[in-house]
Amino acid sequence: MTSIPGYRLNDPTLAASPVSGQEFADLKVSLLFDDDDIAALRQAGTIVGDQIEAILDVWYGFVGGTPHLLRYFSDARTGEPIGLYLAAVRKRFGQWILDTCRAEFDGAWLAWQEEIGRRHHRSGKNRTDGVNATAHIPMRHLLALVIPISVTMRPFLAKKGASPAEVDKMHAAWTKAVLLQAILWSRPYAKEGDF
Fold first, then answer.
1. How do the residues of the chain divide into helix, strand and coil, expressed in percent and rounded to 5?
2. Given pLDDT bands bounded at 50, 70 and 90, which one contains residue 3?
3. Which H or E run includes 146?
4. If 122 and its partner were Cys, which of 24, 66, 68, 136 is the partner (CB 3.0–4.6 Å)?
Protein backbone atom coordinates (compact mmCIF):
# COMPACT_ATOMS: atom_id res chain seq x y z
CA MET A 1 0.00 0.00 0.00
CA THR A 2 2.32 2.70 -1.29
CA SER A 3 -0.33 5.43 -1.01
CA ILE A 4 0.51 5.87 2.69
CA PRO A 5 3.31 8.46 2.99
CA GLY A 6 6.45 6.90 4.41
CA TYR A 7 5.21 3.34 3.97
CA ARG A 8 7.91 1.17 2.35
CA LEU A 9 7.09 -2.54 2.59
CA ASN A 10 8.22 -4.15 -0.67
CA ASP A 11 10.20 -1.03 -1.64
CA PRO A 12 13.09 -2.39 -3.73
CA THR A 13 15.27 0.60 -2.77
CA LEU A 14 15.36 -0.41 0.90
CA ALA A 15 18.68 -1.91 1.95
CA ALA A 16 18.56 -5.60 2.81
CA SER A 17 18.33 -6.48 6.47
CA PRO A 18 21.65 -7.36 8.08
CA VAL A 19 19.84 -10.25 9.80
CA SER A 20 20.81 -13.41 7.91
CA GLY A 21 18.30 -15.99 6.81
CA GLN A 22 19.70 -18.46 9.33
CA GLU A 23 19.57 -15.94 12.18
CA PHE A 24 15.95 -15.19 11.29
CA ALA A 25 15.07 -18.90 11.11
CA ASP A 26 16.71 -19.47 14.49
CA LEU A 27 14.83 -16.52 15.99
CA LYS A 28 11.50 -17.94 14.83
CA VAL A 29 12.40 -21.31 16.40
CA SER A 30 13.32 -19.56 19.67
CA LEU A 31 9.89 -17.88 19.65
CA LEU A 32 8.09 -21.16 18.82
CA PHE A 33 6.79 -19.36 15.74
CA ASP A 34 5.74 -21.76 13.00
CA ASP A 35 3.33 -22.36 10.12
CA ASP A 36 0.41 -22.81 12.53
CA ASP A 37 1.07 -19.29 13.80
CA ILE A 38 1.10 -17.95 10.25
CA ALA A 39 -2.27 -19.62 9.63
CA ALA A 40 -3.63 -18.13 12.86
CA LEU A 41 -2.39 -14.69 11.82
CA ARG A 42 -4.18 -15.03 8.49
CA GLN A 43 -7.38 -15.87 10.37
CA ALA A 44 -6.80 -12.90 12.68
CA GLY A 45 -6.46 -10.63 9.66
CA THR A 46 -9.92 -11.58 8.45
CA ILE A 47 -11.32 -10.75 11.89
CA VAL A 48 -9.57 -7.46 12.62
CA GLY A 49 -9.50 -6.05 9.09
CA ASP A 50 -12.58 -3.89 9.61
CA GLN A 51 -11.67 -3.04 13.23
CA ILE A 52 -8.39 -1.20 12.55
CA GLU A 53 -9.62 2.25 13.59
CA ALA A 54 -11.10 0.91 16.84
CA ILE A 55 -7.82 -0.87 17.64
CA LEU A 56 -5.86 2.30 16.90
CA ASP A 57 -8.22 4.28 19.14
CA VAL A 58 -7.28 1.97 22.02
CA TRP A 59 -3.55 2.15 21.29
CA TYR A 60 -3.52 5.91 20.71
CA GLY A 61 -5.59 6.39 23.86
CA PHE A 62 -2.90 4.53 25.78
CA VAL A 63 0.00 6.46 24.24
CA GLY A 64 -1.86 9.79 24.45
CA GLY A 65 -2.66 9.15 28.11
CA THR A 66 0.92 8.20 28.98
CA PRO A 67 3.08 11.35 29.09
CA HIS A 68 6.44 9.59 28.86
CA LEU A 69 5.27 7.90 25.62
CA LEU A 70 3.45 10.88 24.13
CA ARG A 71 6.64 12.93 24.28
CA TYR A 72 8.09 10.86 21.43
CA PHE A 73 5.33 12.35 19.25
CA SER A 74 5.74 15.86 20.66
CA ASP A 75 7.75 18.88 19.57
CA ALA A 76 11.19 18.72 21.19
CA ARG A 77 11.10 22.49 21.90
CA THR A 78 7.55 23.04 23.10
CA GLY A 79 6.54 19.59 24.36
CA GLU A 80 3.26 19.89 22.47
CA PRO A 81 2.02 16.83 20.54
CA ILE A 82 2.53 17.13 16.78
CA GLY A 83 -0.89 16.34 15.32
CA LEU A 84 0.25 15.79 11.74
CA TYR A 85 2.99 13.42 12.93
CA LEU A 86 0.54 11.44 15.07
CA ALA A 87 -1.84 11.20 12.10
CA ALA A 88 0.89 10.06 9.67
CA VAL A 89 2.16 7.41 12.07
CA ARG A 90 -1.41 6.26 12.73
CA LYS A 91 -1.93 5.50 9.03
CA ARG A 92 1.25 3.43 8.92
CA PHE A 93 0.38 1.76 12.24
CA GLY A 94 -2.99 0.70 10.84
CA GLN A 95 -1.31 -0.81 7.80
CA TRP A 96 1.21 -2.50 10.13
CA ILE A 97 -1.65 -4.39 11.82
CA LEU A 98 -2.71 -5.79 8.45
CA ASP A 99 0.90 -6.44 7.44
CA THR A 100 1.49 -8.40 10.63
CA CYS A 101 -1.44 -10.65 9.79
CA ARG A 102 -0.45 -11.02 6.13
CA ALA A 103 3.36 -11.06 6.41
CA GLU A 104 5.34 -13.25 4.04
CA PHE A 105 8.36 -13.10 6.42
CA ASP A 106 10.66 -12.81 3.42
CA GLY A 107 13.62 -10.58 2.56
CA ALA A 108 11.45 -7.57 1.71
CA TRP A 109 9.61 -7.92 5.02
CA LEU A 110 12.92 -8.19 6.91
CA ALA A 111 14.25 -5.06 5.17
CA TRP A 112 11.11 -3.17 6.21
CA GLN A 113 11.55 -4.30 9.84
CA GLU A 114 15.08 -2.90 9.79
CA GLU A 115 13.73 0.40 8.48
CA ILE A 116 11.02 0.50 11.15
CA GLY A 117 13.66 -0.09 13.82
CA ARG A 118 15.81 2.70 12.42
CA ARG A 119 12.82 5.06 12.52
CA HIS A 120 12.58 4.54 16.29
CA HIS A 121 16.33 4.91 16.82
CA ARG A 122 18.29 8.16 16.76
CA SER A 123 19.77 7.10 13.40
CA GLY A 124 16.43 7.68 11.67
CA LYS A 125 13.81 9.07 14.06
CA ASN A 126 11.83 12.04 12.67
CA ARG A 127 13.35 11.88 9.16
CA THR A 128 10.44 10.22 7.41
CA ASP A 129 7.95 12.88 8.48
CA GLY A 130 10.38 15.81 8.78
CA VAL A 131 9.37 16.63 12.34
CA ASN A 132 11.23 17.92 15.39
CA ALA A 133 9.94 15.40 17.92
CA THR A 134 12.11 13.80 20.59
CA ALA A 135 14.93 12.30 18.54
CA HIS A 136 15.19 8.80 20.00
CA ILE A 137 12.87 6.20 21.53
CA PRO A 138 14.77 4.17 24.14
CA MET A 139 14.85 0.46 23.43
CA ARG A 140 13.15 -0.25 26.76
CA HIS A 141 9.95 1.41 25.49
CA LEU A 142 10.18 -0.26 22.09
CA LEU A 143 10.22 -3.67 23.79
CA ALA A 144 7.78 -2.81 26.59
CA LEU A 145 5.07 -1.85 24.12
CA VAL A 146 4.84 -5.49 23.01
CA ILE A 147 2.56 -6.05 26.01
CA PRO A 148 -0.07 -3.33 25.47
CA ILE A 149 -0.11 -4.00 21.72
CA SER A 150 -0.62 -7.71 22.40
CA VAL A 151 -2.95 -7.71 25.39
CA THR A 152 -5.35 -5.17 23.89
CA MET A 153 -5.73 -7.19 20.68
CA ARG A 154 -7.47 -10.14 22.32
CA PRO A 155 -10.95 -8.56 22.66
CA PHE A 156 -10.89 -7.62 18.97
CA LEU A 157 -9.99 -11.19 17.99
CA ALA A 158 -12.94 -12.48 20.04
CA LYS A 159 -15.56 -10.17 18.48
CA LYS A 160 -16.68 -12.25 15.51
CA GLY A 161 -17.59 -15.64 16.87
CA ALA A 162 -14.27 -17.50 16.82
CA SER A 163 -14.13 -20.28 19.38
CA PRO A 164 -12.13 -19.67 22.56
CA ALA A 165 -9.49 -22.11 21.27
CA GLU A 166 -9.23 -20.19 17.98
CA VAL A 167 -8.96 -16.89 19.85
CA ASP A 168 -6.19 -18.39 21.99
CA LYS A 169 -4.28 -19.51 18.88
CA MET A 170 -4.70 -16.18 17.12
CA HIS A 171 -3.72 -14.23 20.21
CA ALA A 172 -0.63 -16.37 20.79
CA ALA A 173 0.38 -15.97 17.13
CA TRP A 174 -0.21 -12.21 17.29
CA THR A 175 1.90 -11.91 20.45
CA LYS A 176 4.74 -13.95 18.92
CA ALA A 177 4.63 -11.87 15.73
CA VAL A 178 4.69 -8.58 17.66
CA LEU A 179 7.60 -9.76 19.79
CA LEU A 180 9.41 -11.02 16.68
CA GLN A 181 9.10 -7.58 15.11
CA ALA A 182 10.12 -5.72 18.27
CA ILE A 183 13.24 -7.89 18.48
CA LEU A 184 14.06 -7.09 14.85
CA TRP A 185 13.34 -3.39 15.45
CA SER A 186 15.88 -3.43 18.30
CA ARG A 187 18.72 -4.43 15.95
CA PRO A 188 19.78 -0.81 15.20
CA TYR A 189 20.20 -0.32 18.97
CA ALA A 190 22.77 -3.11 19.28
CA LYS A 191 26.51 -2.68 18.87
CA GLU A 192 28.05 -4.57 15.98
CA GLY A 193 28.16 -8.26 16.87
CA ASP A 194 25.80 -7.94 19.86
CA PHE A 195 22.46 -8.57 18.17
1. 60, 0, 35
2. confident
3. helix 146-151
4. 136
